[in-house]
Amino acid sequence: MLCLLTLALEREPAGIAARAFATDDAHLRGTALEYFETVLPPDLFGALARRLSVGRLSAGRPSAGPRRAASEVRDELVKAGATVTMSLDEVRRRLAAASEDE
What domain count does the chain have? Predict the structure, then answer.
């Protein structure tokens, strides 16, 4: 489902948001969820949130804090995406180095 959203939404932030749910970073996952909340119609967001088993939803929206502008959430997500990409690249380098040592 998340991959399909990358076809309909702006590619970079939607892709980062989709990958965020595979990380252990709760803040990044929250930002990704907030991004989807700001760009998706409420019914579709509600279905996505239920699918992701998000328990802190009230009336289809996270309960913490005031709603930010979509552009603000998008910018934060794109900045975080660079960090996630760098982290994945570092993991790949370390795995490659470890397999060479064996």
Answer: 1
